[in-house]
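DATA SHEET
Item: assembly model
Revision: 1
Owner: S.N.
Input lines:
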Amino acid sequence: MSVSQEEFKEMLKKKGLKVTNQRLLVLEVLAENRDRHMTAEDIYELVKEDYPEIGLATIYRTVQLLLEMQLVDRINLDDGCVRYEIGENTYGDTNGKHHHHHLICRDCGKVLSFKDDLLEELERHIEEETGFHVQNHELKFFGQCKECREKQNQNGKHVEV
Amino acid sequence: MSVSQEEFKEMLKKKGLKVTNQRLLVLEVLAENRDRHMTAEDIYELVKEDYPEIGLATIYRTVQLLLEMQLVDRINLDDGCVRYEIGENTYGDTNGKHHHHHLICRDCGKVLSFKDDLLEELERHIEEETGFHVQNHELKFFGQCKECREKQNQNGKHVEV
DNA sequence: GTGATTGCAAACTTTTTGCATCCGA
DNA sequence: TCGGATGCAAAAAGTTTGCAATCAC
């Protein structure tokens, strides 16, 4: 079940909230950049192209709302700012895409995504052992990307781990 | 291989850095609170008990140093501040303890730890498929803890997921 | 003695909040 | 019309930095 713009409007109305240009544009910008990991500032700059009078505070208030509506995910790549990604079932043709994790290169800062559903077993395990009910997860791997590794090897350095 | 205070002093000297009371105390406080997830402010308050003249900036500079020396880990529980945990092999009798993940309750904010080594297979998988060399990871689960779940059930509410 | 380290205060960055105005329903 | 939503500016919160004084070696 993928959420369309029409469904988003319905969801807003059902909650007694108003459909505004700002809200539609924030979600649209996130949808158009589903491969990026956008900060509030990134979203602000892009929405401003279509709607120059928007304020940064509105971006923050809107992503908060979208988080609560579970239409976007929040991720933190440990670079000092929170980032937002549109949900896998929101606004897209990506009906098959499931969870993905982030691979963060400590050398160049690049962030790769890695699709995977293997955590479901672990989640079941956690629920059985602790009674904690898992609703969502965030998994980051820190290390060195292929390119940085090759670059290091070319420089004749020994790869120390 | 567990790192003792003596080894920490050696590591500092080997890097041409000085052994100061402040550095020893920060690591000691982290070691004494390995079950907590300490913010810079938490560490500051505790070190101040033994060393009232310490400044918050020193805490930040020291944890940065300890991170680089891989004696502590940084975690982010999405509550607005970065947290620090002493490394599993640092200053402890916990030679068998391996990786652990964090279970964050969205209702009461409590953070539980869950020991597990199941991610190693996934890391191998990632290295094979992408060439990304994994050095560390951080895994958080968001959901509802046992107590909050029971409380909700007692109130007669239907548990919606 | 000398260079690394510290404490303090100021600067900086990201995010939140108060409030008058505006706008969707 | 009316209450929710917005833009702006100010405030808050967390972290970093410059610098003179201090301390470890």
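QC remark: DSSP finds six helices and six strands in chain A.
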